[in-house]
Design a protein that fits this description.
The protein contains five helices and four strands, in the order E-E-E-H-H-E-H-H-H. The protein is α+β, with helices and mostly antiparallel strands. A hairpin with a 5-residue loop joins strand 1 and strand 2.
Amino acid sequence: MSRLTVRYELDESGAWIARIPSVKGCHTYGRSLSQARQRIREALWAAKDDKAMAYSVELVEDIRLPAQLRRLLAALEKARQGERDASVRAREAAITAVRGLGRLHVSRRDAAALTGFSFQRIHQIAHGRE
């Protein structure tokens, strides 16, 4: 299977311009990235003599974003990573707390009431099925 690179760029009006640089005259646009992705196959079909190839070729995306948009997305990914890290720490703290309560002879029902977890969740953690 052959591969072609599709370059997507956001223009000043917010439309996405899609082009396949290696195929002369193969370009299109879409009001959304999704629409541009659909239309580029149609543009490839129109630009090539081998019509079947337009729908069998693998398209490799090269999405070019303005610097400000790249910074916003990088900040979002950093926040998401922080959220994943906090989730891991919270899970580890829950395990420590539940098992500590068990060692202190606190019943599972009381452990549930104290931690805000369900009785079933306390049972899972206590038996190592977290």
